[in-house]
Each structure stands twice: as structure tokens, then as C-alpha cells.
């Protein structure tokens, strides 16, 4: 009996590596710490009522951001481990197996569990406010999306200590990701972690499309909509077309692995190339899905901190839409060397280059928004300005990669790694940082410390250039990606050393940011204006943090940058703050179903990973039961009384008569 | 703004160090130091496309700096301020136009080179090409010389100035066959045989690698590509023929097992082994550049 328990445990838990024992210990310790703190302060009820069951888009957004910062930490530790292994030739730190697991989890976590939720977090906290709306179109669905993402992410992260991590790369190319080469549960963790959170992403995409199209404030025509909301719309359209492809692709891979199918195997007529096509039909749009909202963020920030209207609004909108459409026509640039022939390569090379045109136009528009403006450099603007050279260089190397015959030399080399980190870190992550600094006062009601913020900015940027510029060079020296070791004879030592130093500096920059947050919480200066940056769009017209019903009175929009125009009119005495009639506000009720249902999804995934049908089947039945329960629940909304609105507004320092 | 100034100086210092490091070891940039016609043209193309993109990039970077500098908010600023200026058809036409022109140029160049550098296109040469069949195994490269009747592992030798017709396949997960100084890579896929023509104009030992991830010890899949004179090559073939063991079918099966390998030489290999490997993945497909191989009549033990 004891023997079989021991045998089971040694297969179930990952053993034999000090790093993983360390992780085991720290996971257990943090769980104990969290549970005891909550119990000691009697916060369980509060946690459940205020957060776990919330359908308030702002709180959901905050939870997304929190989760994504945790994932940034985890992915960052992975990155540092990899850079430590590569710091010099013939390092004896990580084995090949372990390195492969780390770069796989690093890639997956950074793209799917860090960048995506950070983006969804910003969507959630900002879009409804910007549109002058009380909530997203489907608040319940929104909570469900979050919890699905969360249980998918937890499932994926668990693979590190239970069963073993996937090691086939973040896109899991078969046949290496098939049972024959990858028998352990790691690859199934990958499939189910992504699958479950992917459903959540798809629902978020739908939710925000409907929100943007249907619940804008009266008077806000599409062409008066703030640019960030436009970018969210174009990104969500891409989500809705791309994510179903991912779902199907991973489902086919799962059928191969679990039911002995032969879609992508080597034997039985399978064709791995089909998978590679399918995964990139999702994978390429995915990178535009995450970068488009960053474009929106830059546009908002540039206008606000140049004290000037956004230049070329219509061009911007048009460029964004073209980018989201074109992004579906370029996927084969990820495998020019697969030998599809010159016709195919020429087509995909040209469509890829075309994307550079609208992207370039956006950069010009930002520049000319600053032109003849009055630029101030608070942290959000600092990030935005810092991103421009990065993005321009990253875009340029992208065009170089798209020159198909030349890509035969860049492909799979560190040149590629440098390129995509430059657009993904310096374009997307830094862009989201800019957005976080910008909207932080709106979300939490106080500004982050500017001085520490500046330190973080410079450390991140210096670290970035030090880490990734040498990698362009390494690519031209013939260093291929995903190597866990290399010889002294290759001449790659110096560049790798510099690169690792850069990575460490970025790690320090992350810590400085955490310190910034802690420091700012401690020395908090409440923002009483609701509009600390003197900004232009509607979200700044209400108190910070926004009351749970957002707008006490629905705004009536008359122009682009409506809030800015209204401020001007009031200043010039053309408009008096209007006397308003408050009305009871219709709000959705909290619900425990999203978190419970996602937990059951977790069981479904976990059961299927270990082939425990006794867990998966009841899990799935419970998921269905949750749906049934929810659809028979008619008690889903309530009204906020006028008294409560008055009280809440007064607490936020606004008197409404 | 005090801190940011010191930090700015620091960043310049770092960039300087970086520059120093990059110039210090220029001969390491093997992709930019090609030794064959394919690599040569690819390098030209890389440089040409870089220059074309720089036509846009450099002015944008300068413009960014100038605008940010000139229009920053400070006391006594003389620069104009036009808060409501938001549109100019002329300007927008210019910056839709410039990228369109540049991209059109790069596009035209790319399409032309895509056809002329198609990997399966024979190289122009008076000399008759030599064929080398490459098989990607876990985690080693097997080279077979059908004309010479010898085989090697993780080492390939061929005469200079002679076009080499590499036929590439795989008996393991997909990898990528790459000799940077001779020219770009091609995927090694099971169930099909890809053709890649390369040629070395100079004698020398070049680094070759597997560029696409295939699992645990994929980092050990480097091999040497040695271009020698025709005499040296013939002599080497002769030597391998007379001093090395044969590769048997069982020996091949042994090779296909997962594991790394030292350089090895074989004086002979089972007839039709390469074709057998390709056709083994029976229901597989053909596409684009891959050449169809006839299944071998028999495989000699
Ligand atoms: C913050 C500092 C970061 C460092 C130092 C870093 C470093 C690395 C390294 C060393 C690799 C492995 C390259 C290889 O061995 O082939 C890698 C791969 C990758 N990184 Fe990062 N990374 C960072 C941030 C990010 C971010 C923010 C993202 C995405 C949002 C990201 C996405 C990826 C992806 C997708 C891969 C490819 C994984 C694969 O080869 O399968 N990284 N990174
Ligand atoms: Cu792509
Ligand atoms: Cu193929």
C-alpha cells in the first residue's frame, strides 16, 4: 500500500530538482500565509462578496492585472534562468530537458498568461468608462471569461510541480508534441491550460465588440469614439476570428494524443505541416491582437501630454482596421523555409511588408500629434516617447525578416528572437505599462510616484537594449534559438554575456516597479480631481476611483475628446455644470457561478490530463449544471437608489443637487 | 529631471561599450561573411533591404528627437502651439506615400529574388553538381553520397566550386538544415525530400547546424561542412572507402535511436536507404519544392 502510494507520488509530483523543491516549498508557504491572513482578519466573506463573485468590470480588470503581474514575475524568473544558462559557453546550470521546459513555459506564460490578461485588464477597467457606459454588454460573461482565464493559467502553471512541464515550444509543433516523442502529461497541461483560457479570451472578444457597438453614451458616434476603444474593437475582431482556429487546432492535437488520431503524427498519414499552418493562422493575428490596443494607448497618451488633438484620427482608424485584416494574410512568413515554392513565399512576403505601411502611418501621426504641441514628460508620456525608437527599429527588422530569400538566413536564429522581443516587449509590454501608469489614478484613485517611475523606465529601457541588441548580432553570427548550450569555439560569448547583464537589469527594473507601487500605496496622495493629467476623454470626467455604477448621470456626447471640449466650454463660461435629475441605476447582481463553473472546468482539464475520467466526467456534468442553474436564475439585477448615488458621489467629493 | 540626466549619460556609456564589443569581433558575423554564391546574394539582399528601410527609419528617428526636443513644454518657449490642428491632407498623403514607395521597392526586389534564389533551382556552373543526401535524426545528421557510395555522420565534405545538390529529409521531428556561410536553411521533414543547392567558392571548414528545435539534445546537432579541393575530396572519399566500416540497416536503426553522436564515416550504406526513409512515412505528401522519390526496389542489408 505504502509502496504504491510512494510510486504514484513520484510520478505525480516532479521530483529530483532543487529548483522545483524550492518552488514546492514556496507554493505551500504562500498558500498557508494567504489562508492564515484571511482567516485571522476574518476576510473570507469580504473576499467572496467583493472580489470572487464580482461582475463589476473595474474589479475584474484589477484581478486580470494582478494575475498578469504575477505571471510576469514567473515568466521573468524563467527568462533569467535561461539567460543564466546562456551567459557563457558550456554552462552547467540547466540540463537540456529542463531548459526546454523553461523556454516553453516562458513563451506560453508571457504571451497567453501575461500579455493577454494585462490587455484584458486594461480593456475592462477603461473601455466602459471611455464609452460613457455603466458596464460591459454582458457582465456575467465577463466574470466567467476572467475565471476561465484564471483556471487555465493555474492549470498550466501547475505542470511545473505536478507531472512535468511541456517542452515542445510555445507553439508545440508536432510531431515533437505528439505522444510518440512527448508521452508525459506536460503537453496535455499545455493543451488544456490554453484551451480553457482560450474560451475565456474568445468570450471577452465578443463581449467587447458588442459593448463598443451597442452601449456607447448617447451622441458618441463611432467616429467620435476615443482611439483606445477603436483599437480594442479592431483587436477584438481579430480575436473572434483567430481564437476558434486555436481551439480547433489544439482539439485536433488532443485527439491525436488521447484517442490515437493521426492528424499530425508521422505515421498513419498524419501531416505535421498542417498543424504548423493552423497554429500560425492563429499565432500571427495573436501578436497583432496584443499590439493593437498598445497603439490605442499611445494615441491617448500622446494627445493628452502634448495638449493637442490626436493628429489624423481617420487615418488612425483606417490603419488599425487594415492591420487587423492583413494580419490574417501573412501567417506563412513563419516558415518560408518549409519549401512551399516561390509563388507562395512571394505572396506572403509582400502581404507581410504591406502591414508596415499602416504601421508607419501611425508613427507619423503620433509624431505630428506632438508637433506644435506642449509636451510634458510624466511617466506615461516618457514610456510612449521611449517606445517610438524601439518600435521603429523593431518594425524595421520585421520588414527585413519578411524579405523571404533573406529570411532563409535569419530564420530560427537569434535575430528573430531579438526582433520579436523588440516588438513584443518594447511595443506591447511597454505600451501596456504606459497605459497602466496613465490610468492608474483612475483605477485606484492615486498616482504612482513619478521619481521611482522614472528609474523603472530607464532601467527597463537600458536593460532592454543591452539584452536584445546583442541578440541581433548573435543571429548574424549563426546562433540558433532554443540552444541550451554552445561551445567556446563559436565566438558567441561576449554578446551572450552582455545580453544576460541586460536581462538582470530588466529584472531589477521590475522590482523597482513593485517598490513604486508599494511606496505609492504607503505615501498615497489621493487624487481628488478625477482628472490628474488634464486629459481629454470621458473616463476622466468622473471621480477616481470610479464609483461602482461609473456615471451618476449618463453623459451626452457632442464631439470627439468630449471631456476636453466640455472643460473648455466651462472655462470660457459657455456652459454651466448642468443641474441634473438623478435616477435609480440598473445594475447586475454578483454571482458565484463564474468562479464555481471555472473550477469545474479546471477539474475537467486536470482529469483529462491524467486520464482520470472519474474526475473529468463529473466535472463536466457540473459545468453543465452550472449553466442550467444560471439560466434559471431570474434574480440577476437590482436598482441603486438615488440616495445611495448621492451618498457615494458625496464621498468622492462631488455634490449633485 | 536630475536623475534622468545621469541615467541618460549612463545609457550612452552602455551603448558605447556595446559598439566596442560589436566592432571587436567582426569576423564572427559569419552570415555577413559568405563563401558561396547563394550566401553572397542573400547578403546583398540583406544589405539592400536594410538600406531601403533606413531611408524611412533614420529620418523618423531624427524627426522624433527634434520634435520631442523642440515642443517640450518649458518656460520661454518660442515654438508654435496649435492645440486644434488635427489634419493635413498634404502631410498625410506624404506619409502614406513614402512607405508605399519604399515597400513597393523592397517588394519588387523580394519577389525577383524569391524566384531566382529558390532553393531547388540548380546553380549555374560548368561543373556537374554533386548530390549529397541529408537525413535529420535524433540528434545527429546523416550524410549519404549516392555517387561515391559512402556515408558520414555530423561531418560533410565536398569539393569547392562545385554545386552541391543537398537532398534533405528527416527520420525524426522536423529540423532545419543550415550552413550559414554558404546560404540559407531548408526544413528537413519526414515523408518528403527537399532540394537545396549550395556551393562553396573557397576552401574552408564551415559551421553547420540544425536550426529547428527537435528536443533534448538538439543543441548538439552542429556539424562541420568542409570544402576542399577536388583532389583532397577524391582522396578523402577513397580513404573513407578503405578504412571505414559499412553502414548496415541495423546500424542505421541504431543511428535513428535518440542520442548524440561523434563524427563517423561509413564505406558503404544500404542501397536505397534514403528513398526508404522518405517513403517510410507512407501516406505522406508532396508539396512545393519537395521532389518525389521512387520507393527503392529493395533495401540491401
Ligand atoms: C523581460 C525579459 C525577457 C527576457 C530576458 C527574455 C528572454 C528570452 C529567452 C532567453 C528566450 C529563449 C530563446 C531560445 O532559447 O530560443 C525567450 C523566448 C521567448 N520569449 Fe522571452 N524574454 C523576456 C520577455 C518576454 C516577453 C515579455 C514576452 C512576450 C510577451 C516573451 C516572449 C517570448 C517567446 C514567445 C519566446 C519563444 C519561446 C520559444 O522559443 O518557444 N519574452 N525569451
Ligand atoms: Cu507573423
Ligand atoms: Cu513538407
What does this structure look like?
- The complex is a heterodimer of chains A (657) and B (301).
- Chain A is built from 20 helices and 2 strands.
- In chain A, helix 11 packs antiparallel against helix 12 (379-402).
- Chain A is mainly alpha-helical.
- Chain B has 301 residues and is an alpha+beta fold.
- In chain B, strand 2 (140-145) and strand 3 (150-153) form a beta hairpin.
- Chain B is elongated and about 85 Å long.
- The mean pLDDT of chain B is 88.
- Chains A and B meet through helix 5, helix 9, helix 10, helix 11 and helix 12 of A and helix 1, helix 2, helix 3, strand 7 and strand 9 of B.
- One copper (II) ion (CU) binds next to loops of chain B.
Structural key phrases:
heterodimer; A: 657 residues; mainly alpha; two-stranded antiparallel sheet; B: 301 residues; alpha+beta; six-stranded mixed beta sheet; five-stranded mixed beta sheet; 11 strands; 21% strand; elongated; binds protoporphyrin IX containing FE; binds copper (II) ion
Question: Rg of chain A from C-alpha positions?
Answer: 25 Å
Largest sheet of chain B: 6 strands, mixed
Query: What small molecules does this complex bind?
Result: protoporphyrin IX containing FE, copper (II) ion
Strand content of chain B: 15-25%
Q: What level of helicity do the residues of chain A show?
A: 55-70%
Counted beta strands of chain A = 2
Chain pair with largest interface: A-B, 106 and 108 residues
Main sheet of chain B: which strands, in order across? 8-5-1-2-3-11
Characterize the biggest β-sheet of chain A: 2 strands, antiparallel
On the 0 to 100 scale, the average pLDDT of chain B is: 88
* Quantity of strands of chain B, as a count: 11
- Assign an overall shape of chain A: globular
Spatial sequence of strands, sheet with the most strands of chain A: 1-2
Uncertain spans of chain B? none
Mean pLDDT reading of chain A: 92
Helical percentage of chain B: 25-40%
Structural class of chain A: mainly alpha
Low-confidence stretches of chain A: none
Amino acid at each position: 500500500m505504502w509502496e504504491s502510494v510512494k510510486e504514484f507520488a513520484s510520478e505525480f509530483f516532479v521530483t529530483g530538482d532543487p529548483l522545483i523543491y524550492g518552488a514546492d516549498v514556496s507554493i505551500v508557504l504562500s498558500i498557508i500565509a494567504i489562508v492564515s491572513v484571511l482567516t485571522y482578519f476574518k476576510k473570507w466573506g469580504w473576499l467572496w462578496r467583493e472580489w470572487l463573485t464580482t461582475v463589476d468590470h473595474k474589479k475584474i480588470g484589477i484581478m486580470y492585472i494582478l494575475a498578469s503581474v504575477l505571471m510576469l514575475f514567473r515568466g521573468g524568473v524563467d527568462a533569467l534562468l535561461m539567460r543564466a544558462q546562456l551567459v557563457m559557453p558550456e554552462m552547467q546550470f540547466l540540463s537540456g530537458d529542463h531548459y526546454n521546459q523553461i523556454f516553453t513555459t516562458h513563451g506560453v506564460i508571457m504571451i497567453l498568461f501575461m500579455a493577454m490578461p494585462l490587455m484584458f485588464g486594461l480593456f475592462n477597467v477603461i473601455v466602459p468608462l471611455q464609452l460613457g457606459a455603466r458596464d460591459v454588454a454582458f457582465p456575467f460573461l465577463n466574470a466567467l471569461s476572467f475565471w476561465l482565464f484564471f483556471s487555465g493559467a493555474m492549470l498550466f502553471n501547475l505542470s511545473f510541480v505536478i507531472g512535468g512541464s511541456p517542452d515542445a515550444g510555445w507553439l508545440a509543433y508536432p510531431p515533437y508534441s505528439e505522444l510518440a516523442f512527448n508521452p508525459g502529461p506536460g503537453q496535455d497541461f499545455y493543451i488544456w491550460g490554453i484551451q480553457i483560457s482560450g474560451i475565456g479570451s474568445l468570450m471577452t472578444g465578443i463581449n467587447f465588440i458588442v459593448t463598443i457597438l451597442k452601449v456607447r453614451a448617447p451622441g458618441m458616434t463611432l467616429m467620435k469614439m476615443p482611439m483606445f476603444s477603436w483599437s480594442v474593437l479592431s483587436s477584438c475582431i481579430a480575436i473572434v476570428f483567430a481564437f476558434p482556429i486555436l481551439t480547433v487546432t489544439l482539439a485536433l492535437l488532443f485527439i491525436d494524443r488521447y484517442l490515437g488520431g493521426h492528424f499530425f503524427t508521422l505515421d498513419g498519414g498524419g501531416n505535421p505541416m498542417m498543424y504548423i499552418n493552423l497554429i500560425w493562422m492563429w499565432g500571427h493575428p495573436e501578436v497583432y491582437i496584443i499590439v493593437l490596443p498598445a497603439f490605442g494607448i499611445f494615441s491617448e497618451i500622446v494627445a493628452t501630454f502634448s495638449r493637442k488633438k490626436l493628429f489624423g484620427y481617420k487615418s488612425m482608424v483606417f490603419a488599425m482596421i487594415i492591420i487587423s485584416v492583413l494580419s490574417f494574410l501573412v501567417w506563412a512568413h513563419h516558415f518560408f523555409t518549409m519549401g512551399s515554392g516561390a509563388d507562395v513565399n512571394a505572396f506572403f512576403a509582400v502581404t507581410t511588408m504591406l502591414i508596415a505601411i499602416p504601421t508607419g502611418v501611425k508613427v507619423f501621426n503620433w509624431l505630428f500629434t506632438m508637433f506644435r504641441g506642449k509636451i510634458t514628460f510624466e511617466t506615461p508620456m516618457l514610456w510612449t516617447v521611449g517606445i517610438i525608437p524601439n518600435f521603429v527599429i523593431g518594425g524595421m527588422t520585421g520588414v527585413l525578416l519578411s524579405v523571404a530569400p533573406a529570411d532563409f538566413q535569419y530564420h530560427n536564429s537569434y535575430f528573430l528572437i531579438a526582433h520579436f522581443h523588440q516588438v513584443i516587449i518594447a511595443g506591447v509590454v511597454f505600451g501596456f505599462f504606459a497605459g497602466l501608469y496613465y490610468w492608474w489614478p483612475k483605477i485606484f484613485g492615486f498616482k504612482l510616484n513619478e521619481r521611482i517611475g522614472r528609474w523603472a523606465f530607464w532601467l527597463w529601457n537600458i536593460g532592454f537594449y543591452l539584452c536584445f541588441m546583442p541578440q541581433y548580432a548573435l543571429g548574424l553570427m549563426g546562433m540558433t534559438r532554443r540552444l541550451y548550450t554552445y561551445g567556446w569555439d563559436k565566438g558567441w560569448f561576449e554578446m551572450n554575456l552582455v545580453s544576460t547583464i541586460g536581462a538582470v537589469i530588466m529584472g531589477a527594473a521590475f522590482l523597482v516597479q513593485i517598490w513604486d507601487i508599494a511606496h505609492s500605496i504607503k505615501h498615497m496622495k489621493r487624487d481628488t480631481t478625477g482628472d490628474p493629467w488634464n486629459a481629454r476623454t470621458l473616463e476622466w470626467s468622473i471621480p477616481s476611483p470610479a464609483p461602482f455604477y461609473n456615471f451618476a448621470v449618463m453623459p451626452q456626447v457632442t464631439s470627439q475628446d468630449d471631456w476636453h471640449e466640455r472643460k473648455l466650454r466651462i472655462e470660457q463660461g459657455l456652459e454651466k455644470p448642468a443641474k441634473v435629475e438623478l435616477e435609480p441605476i440598473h445594475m447586475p447582481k454578483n454571482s458565484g457561478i463564474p468562479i464555481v463553473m471555472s473550477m469545474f472546468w479546471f477539474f475537467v482539464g486536470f482529469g483529462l490530463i491524467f486520464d482520470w475520467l472519474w474526475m473529468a466526467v463529473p466535472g463536466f456534468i457540473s459545468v453543465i449544471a452550472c449553466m442550467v442553474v444560471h439560466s434559471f436564475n431570474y434574480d440577476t439585477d437590482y436598482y441603486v437608489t438615488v440616495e445611495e448615488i448621492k451618498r457615494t458621489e458625496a464621498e468622492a467629493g462631488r455634490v449633485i443637487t | 529631471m536630475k536623475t534622468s540626466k545621469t541615467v541618460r549619460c549612463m545609457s550612452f556609456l552602455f551603448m558605447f561599450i556595446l559598439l566596442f564589443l560589436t566592432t571587436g569581433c567582426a569576423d564572427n558575423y559569419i552570415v555577413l561573411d559568405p563563401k558561396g554564391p547563394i550566401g553572397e546574394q542573400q547578403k546583398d539582399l540583406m544589405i539592400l533591404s536594410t538600406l531601403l528601410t533606413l531611408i524611412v527609419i533614420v529620418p523618423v528617428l531624427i524627426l522624433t528627437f527634434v520634435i520631442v526636443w523642440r515642443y517640450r513644454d518649458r518656460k520661454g518657449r518660442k515654438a508654435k502651439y496649435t492645440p486644434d490642428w488635427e489634419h493635413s491632407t498634404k502631410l498625410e498623403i506624404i506619409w502614406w506615400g513614402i512607405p508605399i514607395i519604399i515597400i513597393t521597392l523592397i517588394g519588387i526586389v523580394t519577389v525577383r529574388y524569391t524566384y531566382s534564389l529558390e532553393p531547388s533551382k540548380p546553380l549555374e556552373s560548368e561543373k556537374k553538381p554533386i548530390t549529397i543526401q541529408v537525413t535529420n535524426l535524433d540528434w545527429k545528421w546523416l550524410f549519404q553520397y549516392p555517387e561515391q557510395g559512402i556515408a558520414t555522420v555530423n561531418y560533410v565534405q565536398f569539393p569547392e566550386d562545385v554545386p552541391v545538390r543537398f537532398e534533405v529529409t528527416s527520420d525524426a521531428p522536423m529540423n532545419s538544415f543550415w550552413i550559414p556561410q554558404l546560404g540559407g536553411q531548408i526544413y528537413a521533414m519526414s515523408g518528403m525530400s527537399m532540394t537545396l543547392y549550395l556551393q562553396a567558392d573557397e576552401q574552408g571548414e564551415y559551421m553547420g547546424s540544425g536550426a529547428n528545435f527537435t528536443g533534448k539534445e538538439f543543441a548538439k546537432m552542429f556539424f562541420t561542412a568542409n570544402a576542399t579541393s577536388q583532389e583532397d575530396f577524391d582522396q578523402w572519399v577513397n580513404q573513407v572507402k578503405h578504412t571505414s566500416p559499412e553502414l548496415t540497416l541495423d546500424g542505421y536503426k541504431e543511428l535513428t535511436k535518440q542520442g548524440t553522436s561523434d563524427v563517423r564515416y561509413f564505406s558503404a550504406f544500404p542501397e536505397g536507404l534514403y528513398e526508404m526513409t522518405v517513403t517510410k512515412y507512407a501516406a505522406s505528401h508532396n508539396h512545393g519544392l519537395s521532389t518525389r522519390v521512387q520507393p527503392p526496389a529493395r533495401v540491401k542489408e
